[in-house]
Specification:
The structure is a single chain. It is built from 9 helices and no strands. The protein is mainly α. It has one domain. Helix 2 packs parallel to helix 4 (51-76), helix 4 packs across helix 8 and helix 4 (51-76) crosses helix 9 (134-200). It is globular and about 50 Å long. The N and C termini lie far apart (54 Å). It holds the Pfam family VTT_dom. Belongs to the DedA family. Residues 34-157 form the VTT domain.
């Protein structure tokens, strides 16, 4: 999907495009969600869209998708992975290893996963398989999605005229890489003391 096409769709279909793209993206169907929110933020002045209406639609789309994934995880558990995981090269062993990694992002850390593409799509399903309570899940999901939507839309609003659509898309990619880079760096820093301890032993 090209930037011009996204822009045309937003001008033509408005809030409906926001809902469809974000819903698809959050249930795991590849879609340019960060780029969309930045572009919409940059288009607010001339698109006829309202800032708070955009945030409200984004929250509705994201939380609806997350709830669908959560219920799927809660109802189907690991059975879905066991039955269909091989189609995406996700074996039960890989799924167990992935679950152990993602379990570190429990509680308040779940909010941060919204800024990690891929992980935010997996967390609702994992929360469902672990039978996280509805109030806890919805509370963290709403908070994370609100911060995520405000972050990208606000940046797009203030930088849209300065950067333009192409640079905004590149900027979105940079942000998507920046947050995972923080996580990877923290893991490397934590691993180094352990390696030194083993060397001394």
């Amino acid at each position: 999907m090209t930037l011009d096409l996204i822009t045309d769709y937003v001008h033509t279909y408005g809030y409906f495009v926001i809902f469809v793209v974000l819903f698809m993206a959050m249930i795991g169907i590849p879609a340019p969600e960060e780029t969309l929110m930045l572009l919409i933020g940059g288009m607010l002045l001339d698109s006829g869209l309202q800032f708070f209406a955009v945030i409200a639609i984004a929250l509705f789309a994201v939380n609806t998708a997350m709830l669908v994934s959560y219920i799927a995880g809660r109802r189907l558990g690991n059975r879905l992975v066991i039955r269909y995981g091989h189609k995406i090269n996700l074996t039960p062993a890989k799924w167990d290893k992935l679950k152990k990694r993602l379990e570190k992002y429990d509680g308040k850390k779940m909010i941060f996963t919204y800024f990690l593409p891929g992980m935010r799509q997996l967390m609702p399903y994992l929360s469902g398989t672990r039978k996280v309570s509805y109030p806890v899940f919805l509370g963290f999901t709403f908070t994370g999605s609100l911060l995520w939507a405000l972050f990208y839309t606000t940046i797009g609003y203030y930088l849209g005229d300065v950067l333009g659509p192409t640079l905004l898309a590149i900027f979105a990619l940079g942000i998507c890489l920046f947050f995972p880079a923080i996580v990877i760096t923290k893991r490397i820093v934590k691993a180094k003391p352990n390696e030194r301890d083993l060397a001394h032993k």
